[in-house]
């Protein structure tokens, strides 16, 4: 004979199982009914060989089986990444065309006039893949052994310090102008066609400083050719633990490089959620984590909504800096 206690317990278990099934059903149905194209294209708006291209190809290999699709990578470089982005913005929001780009996406949108797309309204942010700081560096021949030294010198003699960038409107240009604004100093901008020229001149003593990506700086730092003074992230980097963040000297300063995946605006929410979930698993595996580390970056397994907030905030900040400092792309 069953006791009332046993019967009651079974009723509770049945009810709990039914509730769990009801709770899980929508997400399970979404995964089952999401129909992905058999071939998906990831557009990289930069030439082959860079970090965006490498990340795209690694992710394509891992993502294809999860979506039951063949994924190809197409490099569509030019105009600061806007040509490839424009192609994706014009594509159908059916999951067949995606964009893998970096924080250059918001920088370009902030300084370029008459783009054929809206950086916020024309895209659906799917997932941030990784993020990491840049390094503020100076030549070994300068007297600046710390960021406070450099800021003090800039305040003492406005306009004397010269900084190099990869060009007008580049991320390192915007990041340095943000530093100048935040620290209330004036420095002279020397734009180059690519950051390599700036690094060469800094090593040669012809430039005082530059804000550099991790891979473009770290070899020269370790080789004793330049000195790193700070990281641009809010907190210290696990890859440069001896460097304090800029915010320790200039309150509120924070700039991270990021890489992310976008779809055209209007893509189904179920597709966004499924892709975001799959990518969280992919970017945190050992292979991707190691590859991100070479860029001084770590995986960023956040929601699509969180990524969208970061993109919008980045764009607003760079537009403000571009307007305040009179920065327009050449």
Please summarize what this structure is.
The protein is 45% helix and 20% strand.
Provide an overview of this structure:
This protein is of the alpha/beta class and 330 residues long. The protein has two domains: 36-132 and 257-325, D-Maltodextrin-Binding Protein, domain 2 (3-Layer(aba) Sandwich), CATH 3.40.190.150; 134-248, Periplasmic binding protein-like II (D-Maltodextrin-Binding Protein, domain 2), CATH 3.40.190.10. 45% of the residues lie in helices and 20% in strands. It has eleven helices and ten strands. The chain has helices at residues 4-33, 51-67, 82-89, 104-111, 147-156, 171-183, 195-203, 214-222, 269-283, 286-293, 304-325; strands at residues 39-44, 70-75, 97-102, 123-139, 162-165, 188-191, 209-213, 226-231, 256-264, 298-299. Strands 1, 2, 3, 4, 5, 6, 7, 8, 9 and 10 form a ten-stranded mixed β-sheet that branches. Helix 2 (51-67) packs across helix 9 and helix 6 (171-183) crosses helix 11. Mean pLDDT is 91; it is low at 1-33.
Q: What's the number of domains? A: 2
- Content of β-strand: 15-25%
Largest sheet: 10 strands, mixed
pLDDT < 50 runs, ≥5 residues: 1-33
Q: Can you count the beta strands?
A: 10
Distance between the termini: 87 Å
CATH topology of the largest domain: D-Maltodextrin-Binding Protein, domain 2
Spell out the CATH superfamily of the largest domain: Bordetella uptake gene, domain 1
CATH architecture of the largest domain: 3-Layer(aba) Sandwich
- What is the CATH class name of the largest domain? Alpha Beta
Radius of gyration: 23 Å
User: Could you spell the SSE succession in H and E letters?
Assistant: HEHEHEHEHEHEHEHEEHHEH
